[in-house]
Design a protein that fits this description.
alpha+beta, Aminopeptidase, Glucose Oxidase, domain 1, Pdz3 Domain, 9-stranded mixed beta sheet, 12 helices, 23 strands
């Protein structure tokens, strides 16, 4: 009898190991199935409000139903929300210069503070007279380099209107059409005259002409669309709930001008960003349904509108199907499909509750390097819940050269690595199952994107998991300043102009000291060598 028990003890761990491997194989196969569908061309990049987004929402809903989750949206599993992105250029808008009708966006853009009016006149580029259209050369406008570029245009146009201009056309501006087009989403104080901006090619025509005939008409439309979140509820009849989320929208074909391959109109499938997180969400629903961790209810939410500015998660946080006071914490998975052992896994939000450091370290997978970030904010959906005083965690395997490009495809996903991340999230849920409500702690806000803060950008994707000296370049955007100068992925920026760059904050402060058109140098470490590049913003 004792001999039989000894044999059973010897065999049981092996049997458990075999069962675990079988379970992991099933999870891995399911992840492949989910990501292959969500990142397929059929869904056309899952642009918020598009038919592809709706196909993705239907798929996620069906998977939630199959996992046994209760619908928690306004219409079954679906929660719709409005996306108001400011102004569009109405087809009735027009700009004609010297009898040539220009093409909106490609050649001209009405500025968001423009009045919706017509104006017409024969003008000279160097002479601006009352009761006529003014042509303003942006290079001649004096301004503080730290002032928001849109505010510079607004102030110059306001002064022109005060001096009697009937309309303004800005030329020789340093911005690209994509930069200016994004301004239409901003709130501004409207002026009393129509105001246009023209591209480089048109600027040259105006600059060299003795007289310019201008006819302009500004008409705006409203840029609105409807996005869809998908919400399923694991109801354990518990007093407390946790939220596990991932965004499922992506860039479509770059229609919103947020692609890092702006000249490529191919489908941006977004396999890592964020079919990877969505697939993990679906699998966690299946696994946690079977686990019976009954201390919590679990609200599984696939957000849309993240790529436009966290629209879906913001709406959810303001219209939650459960009382937010009953929510213990939120876990967000965004881009978890490229686990690289040399970089490891970044876990954000560990400063949002005093229990997180111990819990996260206890759940850490063996052999995987972890990088911790304390901040509860960042460019993903956990921010919306941190701002409601809810502890958060954010899982992220790092940026890469395919980020926001059509090349972010299924063949580059590390599925075994994603299983590792998914199991860590599962273990955290298990370890917190017996705990009382987690205390919330405010953290220092983290700004992970620089292009919205400063008038210039180098055009690189920093590695936010980098802990050594300098700023590690994960990717270089084609056509931007760094690309033109010769910087490359894996360079480490150590100096920008006269500013020593020890970390990302130093890099941001250095950027803040430059304006469009400035020339300077950037020093990088490339392997064992230090290299200097001349750049112009």
């Amino acid at each position: 009898m004792k001999h039989s028990i000894w044999l059973l003890a010897l065999v049981l761990p092996s049997a458990q190991l075999t069962a675990q491997k079988k379970a992991d194989r099933k999870t891995l196969g399911n992840l492949q199935t989910h990501i292959s569908y969500l990142a397929s061309d059929k869904l056309e990049g899952r642009l918020t409000g598009s038919p592809g987004e709706q196909l993705a929402a239907s798929y996620i809903s069906a998977q939630m139903k199959q996992a046994g989750l209760t619908p928690k949206g306004d219409n079954g599993y679906l929660q719709t929300f409005p996306v108001n992105e400011g102004k569009t250029i109405d087809p009735a808008s027009s700009l004609t210069i010297n009898n040539n009708a220009l093409i909106p966006v490609e050649q001209y853009i009405p500025l968001p503070f423009s009045a919706q009016k017509r104006a017409k006149g024969d003008v000279m580029p160097a002479v601006n007279e009352p009761d006529n259209i003014w042509l303003l050369n942006v290079k001649d406008i004096e301004s503080d380099p730290h002032t928001d570029p849109l505010e510079i245009y607004h102030q110059a146009a306001a002064e022109a209107a005060k001096a009697g201009a009937t309309g303004v056309v800005f030329y020789n501006g340093p911005e690209t059409a994509a930069d200016v087009h994004k301004w239409l989403s901003k709130e501004t104080t409207p002026l009393t005259i129509p105001v246009m901006w023209v591209t480089d090619g048109i600027s040259k025509t105006m600059e060299n002409a003795e007289e310019v005939q201008v006819s302009m008409n500004v008409v705006f439309g409203a840029n609105k669309r409807t996005g869809t979140n998908v919400i399923g509820f694991l109801d354990n009849k518990a007093p407390a709930t946790i939220i596990i989320g991932a965004h499922f929208d992506h860039l479509g074909k770059g229609e919103d001008h947020n692609s890092l391959a702006p000249n490529d109109k191919s489908i941006h499938n977004g396999a890592d960003d964020n079919a990877s997180g969505t697939a993990a969400l679906i699998e966690l629903a299946r696994l946690l349904k079977a686990a019976h961790f009954n201390k919590y209810n679990v609200l599984f939410t696939a957000f849309s509108g993240e790529e436009l500015g966290l629209f879906g998660s913001k709406y959810f946080a303001d219209h939650s199907p459960v009382e937010l006071g009953s929510v213990d914490y939120m876990i967000n998975m965004d881009m978890i499909g490229r686990l690289d052992t040399s970089k490891g896994l970044q876990v954000g939000g560990v400063g949002t509750s005093p229990v997180w450091p111990e819990v996260v370290k206890a759940a850490a997978p063996a052999g995987i390097k972890l990088t911790f970030d304390s901040s509860g904010t960042g460019p993903s959906d956990h921010t919306s819940f941190y701002l409601k005083n809810i502890p958060v965690l954010f899982f992220f395997t790092g940026s890469h050269a395919d980020y926001h490009k059509p090349s972010d495809d299924v063949d580059r996903i590390n599925y075994n690595g994603e299983v590792v991340v998914l199991k860590m999230v599962y273990d955290i849920v298990e370890k917190t199952n017996g705990m009382t409500k987690l205390a919330f702690t405010k953290t220092k806000d983290k700004q992970m994107a620089t292009s919205t803060r400063f008038p210039v950008t180098l055009g690189i994707m920093p590695d936010y998991t980098w802990q050594k000296n300098g700023v590690h370049v994960d990717a270089v955007t084609e056509g931007k300043t760094a690309y033109k100068a010769g910087l490359a992925a894996n360079d480490i920026i150590i100096k920008l102009g006269n500013h020593t760059v020890s970390n990302l904050e130093d890099y941001m402060q250095a950027l803040a000291s430059f304006k469009k058109g400035d020339k300077t140098t950037v020093w990088v470490k490339r392997g064992a060598q230090e290299k200097k590049f001349d750049i112009q913003f």
